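User: I'm putting together a teaching handout on how sequence relates to shape, and I'd like one worked example. Could you take MBL fold metallo-hydrolase from Bradyrhizobium rifense, show the sequence you're using, and then write out its predicted structure as tokens right after it?

Assistant: Happy to. First the sequence, then the structure tokens directly below it.
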Amino acid sequence: MTEQSDTQQAKAGAIIVPVTLFEQNCTIIWDEPGKKAVVIDPGGDVPKILDAIKQTGVTVEKIWLTHGHIDHVGGAAELRDALKVPIEGPHAADKYLLDSVVESGARFGMTGGRNFEPDRWLDEGDTVSIGGLTFDILHCPGHSPGSVVFFNKDLRFAHVGDVLFAGSVGRTDLPGGSHATLINSIMTKLLPLGDDVGFICGHGAGSSIGQERMTNPFITGEM
């Protein structure tokens, strides 16, 4: 557990728990003052995630997934069993990835993962909630066919998974990836959210839509 922050007006809190050799940003977000929480993208190292939950003193009620790549879902089935909570997301277009978690993990020396299906697939226009926090779902394919973004209008905050990074964008050389589709998702779904929107991404430091609009070479080259 390396980062903790309070979002606007202390309505919510968040910690980032980097997991596995991929240093994937497993994220715990909770509402205040109820301390009801969601775990986003438990990619592995489930004991580490459970320890972070205990230290934070929150009650996890859901697991959300931004997409189906192994570094984001490797621990999802194990964490669901441990916490007895539902998994929501990603979009059903990533079903083929969730059907091959074991196979994908083996390629990277990751053991313990299980193939699974979420309790709820997510699509453009859906909403998900935890405590008093509600997030809109944006379907943003390109990195993977079923990638989704979670956006909270009130907090001006998004979790974008591997769609967008600080200074970069998600890789598109994996099966199902498309650079043109990814850039279209960013330009038509993320940039219109507004420059004041801050985001957590799947790896590395977060940023804001405005910062990326001005400085991200993958975006400025399209404008």
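A couple of points you could highlight for students: The helical segments are 46-56, 70-73, 76-83, 95-98, 101-107, 179-190, 209-215, 217-220. The two ends are 37 Å apart (CA to CA).
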